[in-house]
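Ticket #4471: structure output looks truncated?

Reporter: J.K.
Steps to reproduce: submitted the chain below (107 residues) through the standard prediction queue, then opened the result file.
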Amino acid sequence: MTVKQLSATELKNKIDQEEKLFLLDVREPNEFQYGHIANSLLIPLNQIPNRLSELDTQLEIVVICHHGMRSQQAANYLAQSGFKNISNLTGGIDAWSCNCDSSVRRY
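Returned output as attached by the reporter:
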């Protein structure tokens, strides 16, 4: 199973079109508090293996981190764990802030 790469603009288009998505943020709680995409669920990367049951397998899962590295790791893990519809937000929350929503603070 390959993980799709999704740009911030592509994600914004999906959200604007009200596609049903599961936004999974794998950063640490302090990063999430600093800024995140609305309606995303925080599950830090190191907690993913123990919290798989919290993920909605019926929806496209878009994995988010700061720049796209941790989310790629998480997305690969989910794909190896049998999840079918996984996307990695390329450039992470930083790209989201730069290209889609400047109210999300950069760090």
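Triage note (M.O.): checked the attachment and the full token line is present. The first strand starts at residue 4 and ends at 6.
Status: closed, working as intended.
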